[in-house]
Design brief:
The structure is a single chain. This protein is α+β, with helices and mostly antiparallel strands. It contains four helices and six strands; from the N terminus they run αβββαβαββα. It has a six-stranded antiparallel sheet with strand order 4-3-2-1-5-6. β5 and β6 form a beta hairpin. α3 packs antiparallel against α4. It starts with a helix and ends with a helix.
């Protein structure tokens, strides 16, 4: 009986909606992969951005960038820039993806042609992965935000 009750409590805790904290957690990191696509503007030949918890922003472009987990460091964000990126991502729902967008990690996910972007977010000791198509503007807006930060 105790085991069944404990199992129900554990499962119930997982069933609630994901809620992102108001302010940036110290372990927050985010990665965005943009697959080669002519279905988005501007068209992409492949892009990968990785923002680590220490504020180092990595950026790579071209087909090789999509397959490389850690592109070269572009720059280190200021705390204010890092906070703005966190808020930007939270407000667009990228930190708490809907059930339909959530997928397993990069090794567990097989891309289909409708997938344009892959977003991986980590904070509060948990990692979430989601995929988005060309019609999903939030990830494409994140792409433009990260592009602007990478070359400042």
């Amino acid at each position: 009986m105790r085991a069944a009750l404990l199992l129900m409590v554990m499962l119930g805790g997982c069933a609630g909606p994901l809620v992102a904290p108001e302010s940036r957690p110290p372990d927050f990191s985010i990665a965005l992969t943009v697959y080669p696509s002519g279905a988005i503007e501007p068209p992409s030949g492949g892009e990968r951005f990785v923002l680590e918890a220490d504020g180092v922003l990595r950026a790579g472009f071209g087909n090789a960038a999509v397959d490389h987990p850690y592109p070269s460091a572009a720059r280190t964000l200021s705390p204010d820039e890092f906070d703005r990126l966190y808020i930007f991502s939270r407000e667009r729902g990228l930190l708490t993806p809907a059930d339909g967008a959530r997928v397993g990690g990069p090794g567990a996910y097989e891309r289909d042609e409708s997938t344009v972007t892959f977003v991986s977010v980590s904070y509060d000791g948990a990692r979430r992965h989601a995929v988005y198509g060309a019609e999903d503007t939030a990830a494409l807006e994140l792409r433009e935000f990260l592009r602007g930060l990478a070359w400042r």
